[in-house]
Amino acid sequence: MILHTLWFVPGVVTEIAVCSPPSVLWLKLELIPEKCILYSTFFMIILPVELLLDAIVLAVPVFYIINLKLPWARRAELIVIFLLGGV
Q1: DSSP for 43-57?
Q2: Is the pTM of this model over 0.70?
Q3: In this structure, are residues 25 and 32 in contact, taking their beta carbons and an 8 Å threshold?
Q4: Theoretical Cys-Cys bridge with 19: which of 9, 27, 36, 53, CB 3.0 to 4.6 Å?
Q5: In percent, how much of the chain has pLDDT > 90?
């Protein structure tokens, strides 16, 4: 939760402040390369980190399920059910 929050806040601030000033987006289109960050570069940086954090969140229940005192078949079923959240 802490990692997601620490990553979410700067990501949202960057998305809101993608251009300085924001009016460049609708008033002076020729200034976009100078006044705005490259949106494609922003997403190429932010998306892998988001995917990594999501994978960590999906993996957390697996460590708890492995330590349960259940037969391996039942544990495997539970792991598959939790990992279906990734779909």
Answers
A1: HHHHHHHHHHHHHHH
A2: no
A3: yes
A4: 36
A5: 20
Q: Is 84 exposed, middle or buried (0-12, 13-18, 19+ CB in 10 A)?
A: exposed
At residue 15, the 3 state secondary structure works out as helix
* pLDDT at 13 exceeding the cut of 80: yes
Location of structure tokens 């494609």: 40
The answer on pLDDT for 28 being more than 80 is no
Question: What is the rounded CA–CA span in Å between residue 41 and residue 1?
Answer: 26
Q: How high is the pLDDT of residue 36?
A: 79
CA quadruple 43, 45, 46, 49: dihedral sign: positive
